[in-house]
From TrEMBL:
One of its GO terms (biological process) is cell surface receptor signaling pathway. InterPro entries: Ig-like_dom_sf (IPR036179), Ig-like_fold (IPR013783), Ig_Fc_receptor (IPR050488). The keyword Isomerase does not apply. Keywords: Disulfide bond, Signal. This is FCGR2 protein. The gene is Fcgr2_1. One of its GO terms (molecular function) is transmembrane signaling receptor activity. One of its GO terms (cellular component) is external side of plasma membrane. It comes from Vireo altiloquus.
Length: 109
């Protein structure tokens, strides 16, 4: 598959994870949504740095462990989201945290 290069100075695409915990675990049926100012429906998806689909859907279900990223034409590649296949995992919220925030950690197995 051909994947576009991100232009310098472009807005970064956002990769949202549902359920909103990091690291995401496969047994949670993880859904990834690519959001950005680029063309909807023209999403390029990457796993472990390798492009595996262009002009695909804006939302996918993660079916393999790995590091996922996405971008759209005219935007920069998203920050990576790690999806793991573990029996026991310590998770933190997937949203941005600031110093002084109260944080709930989840230990799940």
């Amino acid at each position: 598959a051909w994947c576009p290069l991100s232009p310098a100075g472009a807005q970064t695409t956002q990769l949202l994870v549902e359920p909103p915990w990091m690291p995401a675990v496969l047994w949670d049926r993880v859904t990834l949504t690519c959001q950005g100012s680029g063309t909807a429906g023209a999403t390029a998806w990457y796993m472990d740095g390798q492009c595996w689909g262009q002009q695909g859907p804006d939302r996918i279900r993660a079916t393999e462990s790995g590091t996922y990223e996405c971008d759209r034409p005219g935007t920069r590649r998203s920050h990576p989201v790690r999806v793991v296949k573990e029996l026991l995992v310590l998770q933190v919220p997937a949203w941005a945290l600031l110093e002084g925030d109260t944080v709930t950690l989840r230990c799940r197995g």
